[in-house]
Amino acid sequence: MSVTILVGGQWGDEGKGKVIDLLADTVDMVIRSQGGNNAGHTVVTGGKEHRFHLIPSGILYPQTTCIIGHGVVVDPKAFLQELDELQNGGIPAENLVISERAHMVMPYHPVLDQLGEEMRGDDRLGTTWRGIGPAYEDKVRRIGFRIGDLQKPAFLEKKLRFVLRLKNESLTRLYGADPFNEREILDEYLGYAERIDPYIRDIYPLIQDALNANRRILLEGAQGVMLDIDLGTYPYVTSSSPTAGGACTGSGIPPSRITRTVGVFKAYTTRVGYGPFPTELTDPLGDQLREVGAEYGTTTGRARRVGWFDAAVSRYAVATNGIDAMVLTKVDVLDEFHTLKICTGYMSKGEYWDHPMANISHLKHVEPIYEEFPGWMSPTRECRRYEDLPQACRAYIERIGELCGASVNVVSVGPDREHTLVRTPLLD
Ligand code: IMP
Question: Are 313 and 357 contacting, i.e. CB atoms less than 8 angstroms apart?
Fold first, then answer.
């Protein structure tokens, strides 16, 4: 049996989709455990690009059961669009299951997300406007709707009457926006119910059976540790727990059954949205990194902020998630840089920090301590084994592992499967 958790070790967009795809055909079950369609995973197989937001990337393998766990918030409209795209592309998605406990993004959530951001003005978070935060707020406030509610029209109607009073009150009084119409929402969601119904399941027996039968399970993380609601750069975070702990609660798999936690890290750092970013490069070198790395968001198309690899952040991710294997992606993006830097820690008010502090106004002004490395100045895309990489490149990679306290088991030098160099297999 193996239960592997895969988490992003930075601020998301580390290239998890690629690693999930690499592992998905060797596992029996892939489970998404948090986030929603704010996530974007790009998987390239056989030269064909697939973009996933909600559906686990394992869907490309018909023998792999793909579960949307109850820690995820599902926008039914976005879900069906993604399903249509897959099915039109010849992927039947018969292996897909959604937990009846997963909460739904309702039509007022994206509107409230956007209005809330506008109201924050200069303090806005830079959310994806997908309604993710407001959907999680309602879950915690216990006025959320769950996917299973689609199978109970009378309950849905009664509850919506109550909830919509609260929502319309905020929309009209607080924001001066238009209210939502109960009948229209009901018609829209009951319309979705018919199509989503075959996918809705109680995932508890499915997962227990898989655990008891010693199946190989992969828990697919979205976003990254620094966007975690507790561990991240609050309030510049997402509203879920993209951590190993979140993977357990979002799927119902106990921590004692986890056999490995894999962390995916980019060979440099990126972040979308606002908030502190100690190693950010806002100069022409940063522009070069963004262009070479094609650092534009999968979900929103926004230009990502870019910077040097931050080992203080990554070490914190390794330690708080129990990461025992690191995957380092987009190493080839650094091929043309004369000098590279890795941040090993920060100085803040005369004090040394080996991890990001909770106080974000301090984190915003820390002085990163850098180690410099000579660039390898040669293409790495054609390398097929770790040993083929230039010596300077291996030195850079190995120093990252050393500073973070975990070994870099896999290195990626391009988007395709053949660009993945395995030093030590991720799964036994
Ligand atoms: P939200 O998740 O839409 O509420 O956005 C909150 C923060 O998380 C913003 O800074 C987003 O840009 C960021 N975020 C959400 N999902 C992703 C992702 O998949 N990759 C990178 N950043 C993300």
Answer: no
Residue 242 and residue 222 in contact, taking contact as beta carbons nearer than 8 Å: yes
Which amino acids bring their CB within 6 angstroms of ligand 1? 11-13, 38-40, 125-128, 130, 132-133, 222-223, 227, 236, 238-239, 272-273
What pLDDT does residue 45 have?
A: 72
Q: Which candidate, 299, 300, 316, 253, places its Cα nearest to that of 42? A: 299
Distance, CA of 84 to CA of 82 (rounded, Å): 5
Q: Is 94's pLDDT higher than 80?
A: yes
Ligand 1 pocket check: which of 11, 234, 272, 302 to mutate, most ligand atoms within 8 Å of Cβ?
272
Q: Per residue in 272-318, pLDDT tens?
A: 999 999 999 999 999 999 999 999 987 778 899 999 999 999 999 99
Residue 41 annotated as catalytic? yes
What value does the mean pLDDT of the chain take? 95
pLDDT digits (tens, 9 = 90+) for 18-56: 888 789 889 999 999 999 999 988 777 767 788 889 999
Q: What is the dihedral of CA 84, 89, 95, 97, to 10 degrees?
A: -20
Q: Is 419 among the residues known to form the active site?
A: no
**CA–CA distance, 221 with 20 (Å, rounded to integer):** 9
Q: Among residues 21, 25, 28, 41, which one is catalytic?
A: 41
The whole-number pLDDT of residue 343 equals: 98
Distance CA 316, CA 321 (A): 8
Of 238, 274, 277, best ligand 1 pocket probe by most atoms within 8 Å of the beta carbon: 238
Out of 13, 75, 138, 149, pick the active-site residue. Answer: 13
Q: Please state, as a whole number, how many other Cβ atoms lie within 10 Å of the Cβ of residue 213.
A: 9
CB 152 within 8 A of CB 190: no
Tokens representing 422 are 């395995």
What is the pTM assigned to this prediction?
0.96
Q: Quick one: CA dihedral 89, 91, 94, 97, positive or negative?
A: negative
pLDDT score recorded for residue 241: 98
